[in-house]
Amino acid sequence: MSRCLYNSTIREFLQLSPETLRGRFVNNYHGAVLTTTNEAWADEIHIMQNVLRLWKDEDGQVIFEYDIPRLGKRIDVVLLLRGLIFCLEFKVGERNMLQSNIEQVLDYALDLKNFHLLSQNRIIVPILVPTLFKRCSSEFTPSVYDDSIYNPLVTGADGLQELIADVLTHAGATARNTCFGAEWVFSPYSPTPTIIEAAKRLYENHSVEDITRHEADKVSTDRTIAYILNVIKTSREKGEKSICFVTGVPGAGKTLVGLDVAVKQSYQNGDKLIEDEGAVYLSGNGPLVAVLTEALAIDNQKKCKARGEKKNLSDSRREVGKFIQMIHRYRDNMLAKIKNPVENGVLEIDPQKAIKLAKSGYGEVEHVAIFDEAQRSWTHKRLANYLKRGGTYGNKLKVPNFPYSEAAFLIWSLDQREDWATIVCLVGGGQEINTGEAGISEWINALNEKFTHWKIYISDKLTEAEYAEGQVNALLANNDKVTYSSELHLGVSLRSFRAENLSAFVHSLLTFDPDASMWYDTIKERYPILLTRDMDKARAWLRKNTRGSQRSGVLVSKAAARFKPMAVDILKQGDENAVHWFLEDKNDIRSSNFLEDAATEIQVQGLELDYTCVLWDADLRCENRQWRYYNFNGRTAWHEEAGKTEGSIERKKYMLNAYRVLLTRARIGMVICVPKGNPNKTIGGFPEDATRLPEFYNGTYEYLKSLGLDEI
């Protein structure tokens, strides 16, 4: 795909007629050109030809409709002149300056600064041009962030030439012929989109590396996807059942890989959904599914409207819902087909409840199922208890004596197909955060004991300690259908473009590794991690640093309890609340940017923000380089989780993993707030608040401070 619709020297641009230029735009445009778009191009060409006559003899470059992969948008005009980069966003026919438009042009400038190699050391000037605007910016203020980006300027079309000239003078760019050449258009571009932005682009049939970091040698998402698609192809051709286990560091793109496989397999011939060969992306993460579905549906409806097509938001939701689904709903569809009650521990299809089809048998229609966060599938005990009572509220199908874990049942479900099937398990290490989440060992045990005919393709990193407690080699020692491959591991974090070593630092921090300070030294220059004991200072830092459409938010663990004294509420349960928290803009009080509602690890796992504040409560305390774990009784006191039973050990693992999730949600930087607690005494000499004693927090604060974190 071309990076732009048109680029040339200023001299060549001025020599061509407007009609010729528009013809080139149309020829290079992918899709049908709307009348409004054509008219906007005509106005922009006319304005720019008038503006640039002042610099007709200089070695500048003018670029129209420059592609911004991360944002899924194009900059109307980029002007490279005297070493400066001008980002121009035109609003043809508009008379007013809107905040959303200011943020749009600032986003373009930030994106170039952060991800575009030949822009990183240049002055970038974002200019909004509502063409009928009657005023012009007169104050030229470089960003307070010392990143060589001017604060956005605004002018009408009539004042654009004078504004550019004044900026050149202000920046001291008086020398002629200092352009850095046409190669700027093809500069390496390494954006790392949020999962929401990336999902929108994948839905348009882009590759993961095309929208992330395709110039970075270490990024292997496309190789992983190609490997999985080849396994699917082989399984189809040979009539086999197969399963792939994909591992990756936090933020490495496992979810993107899963979504891309689902889209590529479901839309093999372009825009049309292939029903008979489709794939479904399944997740037990309700907030993730809800946020992605709503974001994709809204984006799909907007694109249809821009093309002049009529489409209701509900129709867009249904279309997206065909290949992004909650795993529990998929499971319930299969449960409705079995003989109930289950006898002798054997699952059987009830012919009275299901229709057997020629190819799919009694299975679902999809050949391929991608299970995100496969390590979080339920244990046999949890699933059996859940189904025994008929779901959480006892109002669903009751299945007593259910014999399988969730992993085993999902394999059984795909095994019902008569022809072929492939399962893709996306596995995060050390991220089980709920009681009853089985880890990866349940999948392997099911394959060893019940589904011995399935081919297994497994990441060579699945043998490491954070997966199945390092027992994978032993569990698979006698299975002759295993193929190990390095192509199934994603080793580079895409979430934190400034800190590929963030996950290593967080792991070292949580395990008291002596190298934690060393890991922090490798990231602190580009990825700030600040420490504070004052929530007001944390909020101020987030508000200062969050620009344009960037998002910030407060995070707490679900075991946290004493957050109200810091004027923080927990985001209420319900996927709709997560949708608002992640998707609404900064003017909506339900948005994460308001910094009032804090999300927990349950609501943010698999998603991310640009900046975060992790509010560290007294549930996890550092004492003498050891973690101690506490639960609040809801009234007066914390009680330590200090038992040695299997259940207690499991609960402590979940509590530690919660902080692993919280500390890896920020893409650009974070602040950790460890409260001071309440040292005050009553008249009688008793603690004013015995639930927030300073000693509950001081050890954690001193430990984090010892790692070299800067304080605010």
Automatic annotation (TrEMBL):
Pfam families: SLFN-g3_helicase
Segments forming domain Schlafen group 3-like DNA/RNA helicase: 241-675
Protein name in the entry: DUF2075 domain-containing protein
Origin species: Candidatus Avibacteroides avistercoris
